[in-house]
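User: Show me a protein chain along with its predicted structure.
Assistant: Here is one chain, sequence first, then structure tokens.
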Amino acid sequence: MRRKLLLSLMMLSASVPAFAAQRPVSLDVGGGTVYGTELTPDGVSGKVPVVLLHAGSGPTDRDGNNTLLPGPNDALRMVAEGLARQGIASIRYDKRGIGASALPVWKEENLRLDDYVGDAAAWLRKLHADPRFSRVVMAGHSEGAQIASEACAQGGADACVLIAGPAHALDEVLREQLKDKLPPPLMEESDRILAALKEGKTVDKVPPPLMVLYRPDVQPYLISSLQHDPRKAIAALKMPVLILQGTSDIQVPETEAKELSAAAPKARLVTVEGMNHLLKMVGKDEALQQKSYGSPDMPVAPQLIDALSSFVKAP
């Protein structure tokens, strides 16, 4: 046992960048505890800004890795390290039911988007109370952008960042993503299910090909998600807002960022040419696009880190 512990500690220390200090953090919420990682820059005196990073939908962990993808991509870990190089601290965490936060109390059927929003807001309040930090910013990726826009209002963030976030409600997003992938009969079934969920009703009969999307255990979460409109959420924000979007994103098109920007004219919109949904530079190379979904060796776009760091440091 002691040898295993020593080996684990050695592996942990080997994974920590030389320019930053890493430590585990946790937060008690809703009958359980969520666990994360704090990364603070070394060699910086005085208070530093801190960014709360929130991952996207489904089984996506603190580092941006999703068990449904071909392999790890480590996008959010790389963002945290990029921020540390710029003298910015960060917190990234496993949301309820995922990774180290996969507690028995948080089974899939018990998860709600509102709980994720409340958890993030609680993290923001905790960071505000920490005397080490000069400014508290939240950055959400994909579905995490929707969560960030609402949590920033509840938790009193100093600024909010939406990265590759959709502008439309979940039912609109799913219809757009599925319309060219499903045969007409299945598309009709998907529309029927979405209409029921939108009304707050669960659906008993789900065709096997659609079970991965609409399985009974996930329906309560979908019902909660369908009540949220990203455009209304960003329009209500009173703090500075940055919208970051890549032109090679095949999951959330560039038009979504433009619609978010239209809903919040004072927000700053930064488009990164050639960046995909996983924040990697792929351009128009389809093979590179596919590779990025399972390659932790591909770095995140440096333009993303530059834009994010400049925004976080702005007075």
